[in-house]
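Write out the 3D structure for:
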Amino acid sequence: TTRFYSLSNGRFGHPAQNRAISLREGATLQTFPTDYVFKASNVADISRIIGNAVPPELARRIGKAVLEATAENKAKHFAVGLFDGL
């Protein structure tokens, strides 16, 4: 959701304060590192980046699972090929 930072859009309110969540809070919810610097010049562009992003932690976990599955698959094929014809 790209306009999460505005309550007028019916988006996300802060759970303890009477305000919308900030861009940094939205980025934190999306699992961006707290020191990540967004390369954009205005609020609308930054909110679009955050709102449209695949959460970095989700991407990391998917990538790790793919690498592990690929390594396991290669190991199985290598083991089968190594003993073929014996």
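The chain has two domains: 1-53, 55-86.
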